[in-house]
Amino acid sequence: MALFCNITIFxxxxxxxxxxxxxxxxxxxxxxKLDPIFKIKGPATLSGHxxxxxxxxxxxxxxAATLCCSGSSLLHNVPNISDVEAxxxxxxxxxxxxxxxxxxxxVNSDGVGKVEVDLEEMRKIRGGFFVIGPLxxxxxxxVVALPGxxxxxxxxxxLHLRGLRALGAVVELRDGKVWAHTANGKGLVGGRFRLDxxxxxxxxxxxxxxxxxxxxxxxxxxxxxxxxxxxxxxLNDSGASIEGAGGDTLVxxxxxxxxxxxxxxxxDRIEAGTFMIAASITRSCISMSPVIPSRVSCLIDxxxxxxxxxxxxxxxxxRVSALPALCLGDDLKSFDIKTSPFPGFPTDLQPQxxxxxxxxxxxxxxxxxVFENRMSHARELQKLGARIEANGNRAIVFGKDKGSSLCGSxxxxxxxxxxxxxxxxxxxxxxxxxxxxxxxxxxxxxxIVTKLxxxxxxxxxxxxxxxxxxx
Length: 471
Ligand code: EPZ
Known about the structure:
Keywords: Cell cycle, Cell division, Cell shape, Cell wall biogenesis/degradation, Cytoplasm, Peptidoglycan synthesis, Transferase
Domain Enolpyruvate transferase: 41-452
Bound molecules: ligand EPZ
Family: Belongs to the EPSP synthase family. MurA subfamily.
GO molecular function: UDP-N-acetylglucosamine 1-carboxyvinyltransferase activity
Strand order of the largest sheet: 24-25-1-26
Number of helices: 14
Catalytic activity: phosphoenolpyruvate + UDP-N-acetyl-alpha-D-glucosamine = UDP-N-acetyl-3-O-(1-carboxyvinyl)-alpha-D-glucosamine + phosphate
Distance between the termini: 32 Å
């Protein structure tokens, strides 16, 4: 592992030593705005079984795809999380009929009368941009506010737009919005497009658009993520003709109409990965289902390399054990990771794995190659006593024998997965951890507090007087 030439060391925030942990949490006053927080008492030992919810990222893509379908689509196993609510609100704002009941969502978009997604809606969820494909393909035009960047990167949408142009759409950027319509008012036309980067979102947008284009479309260097495969399966069940999903080339024979169908959303591989790391960081043994092992194989390899014991109880149930007794060697060993598109190591598990590495023996190199700014959790982990030297999108993570010693403190969730890494670190830390800005975490994890409580964690969702000065 090469040491960096110019190292940026985050100024070491004052971390209360566990023994002198008398952090004064301010008393709430009557008319003060209260912010929800997570409070975790550690170190925790977890045990038992956790049920994994439906995939957030598959749900968002499939909800967008219901705009392609005439009649009603019925999605089962839809996670009850704020991102899904936000996507449903976008569909309703366009005029689609959306009903949700006991984990299902019925969507009928025959009533869509508006093709503009306004900024307010887009602000709530970036994935909302994916509706541009179905709107142009089925309704001939779309006006969608540019999603803009987020805490993990600039996240441009150039590949979505260039791909739509390759299918014959006229696309203009004006007043912070994308204005797209079909050239001849007739419809999109099949074409060829090579993505410069296997973007998940661009692949999904163009797959939906090409499904209703006139003729054959060839998309190459596409994303291979499982969520792309789930979307292709739903579209094919709705009458589309998509071949090659899961590979790096898609051949799509466009159809003039797709019909609503029924689909069970696959389990969330990132939520499953987060709980696998929860078992590891707390040196516990838990099982979880439903999980599709091939969708977390990279993580299984890395946790096994560290010394965890991972066993498949049945086709959809995994047991992860990092019980010291069962660990191969006296404790979990460090390892290096570099994120990359599927089947590489998922960027959405990078923050959680960084938290784990602060508790392993040795030091590790963590490289983030998908997003250019996905290291802000390193600073928060430092507030919890982690020793991390970050430099751009690379970080050296020093383990428990190299200066990291987790103990509770007040930290801020700056994005969804960064927030998840703070929960995991809080479970392993001595003392009380207080996580602010939890709205980031609740965007993508269904009932995470209850699930962890059922595994024996001392975690609660409570409120505190707002701390706008907290940075
Ligand atoms: C999806 O985002 C996921 N979100 C992300 O999960 C995930 O991190 C990401 O794929 C990568 O796996 C949803 O599915 C809703 P990309 P997406 O387009 O589609 C660049 C989570 O935590 N790019 O594959 O936005 C982009 O800037 C979220 O659940 C372009 O340059 O990701 C980035 O560096 C976070 N031009 C890279 O590609 C484009 O037109 C990967 O982005 C599009 C993307």
